[in-house]
UniProtKB/TrEMBL annotation:
One of its GO terms (molecular function) is lyase activity. Its EC number is 4.2.1.55. It is an enzyme of class 4 (lyase). This is 3-hydroxybutyryl-CoA dehydratase.
């Protein structure tokens, strides 16, 4: 269960996932986070907002970014250090969210990687930002 080592990373490498946001996902996220904002949970309330219906928690999309970093690129063993986020468009229940991370810079001294992080629905950016993660170095073999 080991992801890529720092030495395996190159600028431009990318990975992505697609997740369809279901009602149960939003309700589960509200339960585990404690964020019961009615704009996410109460359709009658949400209809009165500019979004005209329930929208997903912004941090649920952010969790999809974390999932790509932690399972694909760099993968298991990666440690979050920083994440910026801009919530550009709402994510509605039923939207297929494509989350892509792309290596932008590598700090050899610290074994840190900076990745562009983008979530899109139907080709339109809903969330963008940048992540910095600490990546395990490949163990050196001793003779
Ligand atoms: C407590 C937690 C709650 C939640 O989790 S809620 C769920 C997460 N949030 C969302 O889903 C919101 C998603 N974002 C949007 O839907 C839209 O975004 C807005 C409706 C809020 C605004 O859209 P529009 O009125 O069309 O604004 P514009 O014309 O695209 O931009 C106007 C100026 O505002 C800047 N801007 C817009 N969104 C962001 C952002 N998310 N972060 C930083 N800047 C933003 C632009 O660049 C631009 O600026 P310039 O006039 O200088 O060009």
């Amino acid at each position: 269960m080991q992801g890529l080592f720092f030495e395996d990373l190159t600028v431009g490498q990318s990975a992505e996932t697609t997740k369809i946001v279901g009602t149960a996902d939003v309700e589960a996220f509200a339960a585990v986070s404690g964020d019961t904002n009615p704009v996410h949970l109460d359709e009658d309330y949400a209809l009165t907002t500019p979004f005209q219906g329930r929208i997903a928690h912004g941090m649920l999309s952010a969790a999809y970014i974390s999932a790509v970093l932690g399972t694909k690129l760099p993968g298991p063993g990666a440690i979050y250090l920083n994440q910026s986020l801009r919530f550009r468009r709402p994510v509605k229940i039923g939207d297929p969210v494509v989350t892509r991370v792309t290596v932008q810079a590598l700090d050899e001294r610290r074994a840190h990687a900076t990745l562009a992080t983008v979530c899109q629905v139907d080709g339109k950016t809903v969330v963008d930002g940048e992540a910095v993660v600490m990546v395990p170095r490949r163990p050196t073999s001793r003779v």
